[in-house]
Structures are given as structure tokens and as C-alpha cells.
């Protein structure tokens, strides 16, 4: 009798260094969260990602103002076409490209 291969969960595709036990505990925590708690977690992680990307932009463009950094982030986040639709050609964004 051969052992069946372990079924991959959605978490293992993203966190392949996570043990089975740690994954089980994490999934149980997620299952017990209310929808409001899940949305709060998503919002918090989104803000963390935004902060990290803006920190990277500050490192790439140390001369840029906070307003310019924000517009660089918005342009990367939204893409050129949507950024132009939202902020138009008169936005106080960066003078440089992506």
C-alpha cells in the first residue's frame, strides 16, 4: 500500500515554510473570526502593504515630497489609465515615470 500524497491547501501555496500544525491553528483562527474581524485584518494588511510600498518609493525618490510619494503609489496601485481618469493630467503627481 502506497502513501497518498498530502493534499495541498491554499495556505501552503503561499506559505510553504509553514508546518502542518501551524497551518491548522491559523486556519482555525480564521474560521472563528467574525466577518468584521476578517475585514479588519484585510484592511490592516492592505495598509501595511501600502506603507511598505511607499517606504520603497521614498528610498527610490528621496527628493520627493509626501504628496509626490502618494501620487507615485496611487499611479502604481491604480495603473496609468485609471490614475488619469481619477486624477487627470492636472494631478500634482510625480514628474517621473513608474
Can you walk me through this structure?
The structure is a single chain. This protein starts with 9 loop residues before the first helix and ends in an 11-residue tail after the last helix. The longest helix has 26 residues, at 35-60. Helix 3 packs across helix 4 and helix 4 packs across helix 5. It has a domain at 46-91. It contains 5 helices and no strands. The protein has helices spanning 10-14, 20-32, 35-60, 66-78, 80-87.
Terminal Cα separation, in Å? 56 Å
Q: What share of residues are in beta strands?
A: under 5%
Pattern of helices and strands: HHHHH
Share in helix: 55-70%
Tell me the radius of gyration: 20 Å
Structural class: mainly alpha
Shape: elongated
List keywords for this structure.
98 residues; mainly alpha; elongated
Amino acid at each position: 500500500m502506497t502513501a497518498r500524497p498530502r493534499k495541498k491547501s491554499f495556505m501552503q501555496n503561499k506559505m510553504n515554510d509553514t508546518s502542518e500544525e501551524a497551518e491548522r491553528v491559523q486556519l482555525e483562527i480564521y474560521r472563528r473570526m467574525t466577518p468584521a474581524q476578517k475585514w479588519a485584518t484585510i484592511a490592516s494588511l492592505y495598509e501595511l502593504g501600502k506603507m511598505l510600498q511607499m517606504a520603497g518609493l521614498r528610498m527610490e525618490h528621496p527628493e520627493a515630497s509626501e504628496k509626490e510619494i502618494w501620487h507615485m503609489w496611487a499611479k502604481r496601485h491604480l495603473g496609468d489609465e485609471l490614475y488619469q481618469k481619477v486624477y487627470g493630467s492636472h494631478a500634482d503627481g510625480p514628474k517621473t515615470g513608474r
